[in-house]
């Protein structure tokens, strides 16, 4: 005998009744699964398109530095000269990199305390033997734009 016939005989139901109960059971299970899935993911996640505010202090400081760099215009007049002597500027003094502190470095536009710390660690790892500004590209977070800002504010030996 077929399974349907055996089940109908034991339950005392016709094949049509068994089919109806089976359809209802499948719909119930499907509804329960969809409801459970819907409740497992909060609706706010789908309705709110803004990114979650889970940035740590490092990311926030790097974003602030990027904003400062965009606001600081870099022109030919403000870049450091390529030959030996730096022009004397009234009002702004350059910082000697070999003796600079974290506070002095973080006073440079676009350099946060995190980047200042990295620069000092880089200086210590090189035993203060940094001859070219291009060497700063080895520091995480320092790219060509920040190097041009450092050229404006630092003096290398």
TrEMBL record:
Span of domain Helix-hairpin-helix DNA-binding motif class? 103-122, 134-153
SMART domains associated with the record: HhH1 (SM00278)
GO terms in the biological process aspect are: DNA repair
Per its UniProt record, what SUPFAM superfamilies does this chain match?
A: RuvA domain 2-like
Give GO MF terms, alphabetically: DNA binding
Q: Pfam families, per this entry?
A: HHH_3
Which InterPro entries does this chain map to?
Answer: Hlx-hairpin-Hlx_DNA-bd_motif (IPR003583), RuvA_2-like (IPR010994)
Q: Where is this region: Disordered?
A: 70-93
Protein name from the UniProt record: Helix-hairpin-helix domain-containing protein
Q: Which organism is it from?
A: Prosthecochloris vibrioformis
């Amino acid at each position: 005998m077929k399974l349907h016939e055996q089940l109908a005989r034991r339950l005392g139901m016709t094949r049509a009744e068994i089919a109806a109960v089976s359809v209802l059971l499948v719909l119930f299970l499907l509804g329960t699964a969809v409801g459970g899935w819907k409740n497992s993911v909060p609706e706010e996640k789908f309705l709110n398109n803004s990114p979650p505010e889970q940035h740590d202090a490092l990311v926030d400081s790097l974003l602030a530095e990027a904003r400062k760099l965009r606001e600081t215009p870099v022109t030919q007049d403000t870049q450091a000269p390529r030959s030996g002597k730096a022009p004397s500027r009234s009002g702004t003094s350059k910082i000697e990199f070999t003796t600079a502190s974290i506070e002095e470095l973080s006073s440079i536009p676009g350099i946060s305390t995190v980047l200042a710390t990295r620069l000092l660690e880089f200086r210590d790892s090189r035993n203060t033997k940094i001859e070219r500004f291009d060497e700063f590209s080895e520091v995480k977070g320092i790219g060509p734009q920040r190097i041009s800002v450092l050229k404006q504010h630092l003096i290398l030996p």
